[in-house]
Specification:
- The chain is of the alpha+beta class and 232 residues long.
- Helix content is 17%, strand content 56%.
- The chain has three helices and 13 strands.
- Strands 1, 6, 7, 8, 9, 10, 11, 12 and 13 form a nine-stranded antiparallel β-sheet that branches.
- A hairpin with a 5-residue loop joins strand 12 and strand 13.
- The longest helix has 28 residues.
Length: 232
Amino acid sequence: MFHHTRTVIATVAILILTASQAAALGRVARRYNVMDFYSGTSSPVGKYESLADFVDFSDADGQPTDVDGDVLYDPTFHLGFNYGQLRNDRMLVTVGFRWTKIEAINLLGLTSVGIEGLAIFFDPKKPSINQYDFDFNFNYMFLSIAQRSFAPYVGVGFRAGFTSVTAKGFESESRLNTVLAGNFGAELKLWEHAQKRAFLTVASVNSYDLLSSGDRPKYFNLGAALKYYFRP
């Protein structure tokens, strides 16, 4: 009896171990590393009391005032790249770097803001303003892009970096800041390895900046990415 009991226990243990190994293999099979390169347009949103925390705005009475983003900033563009992992066919986590060229409108023509300070700021010419960010994103795909040719997604993005202002004849200045964004878009598969070990997609990479620290410029971003998935 004891011998039979040991045999049953050993058999159950082997079955559990085999099942665990199979599940682990299944999990590995559903995991892909991913690299992407993207670019797009950025349209300013929100209201601001300063130009990227460098120059405060005031009205004719010297009181602080807000300026609409589409008045303060021109539409611009951004570039970036990410590296991450697709897990369980649906959850995509990436980290990367993003650069945004901040295009400020020549504010000397605005009468609703403090002209004296801005005149000094834009003399002798408009400065160069750039945003450099480390980028973290978590996106959820409604369909498996590993198994299908098309998959929409939503998610959240967090960027932390600094705004840099440079002008000829002046010392460069920088401000640390962060932004929280809502992500959305879709991916379309272009190519797939015969054994499904890798595939290539084109994706719409869109986001809306929801919250930011200070008066960091916020944007509605529309872009496209080329993404390469491969098994580790």
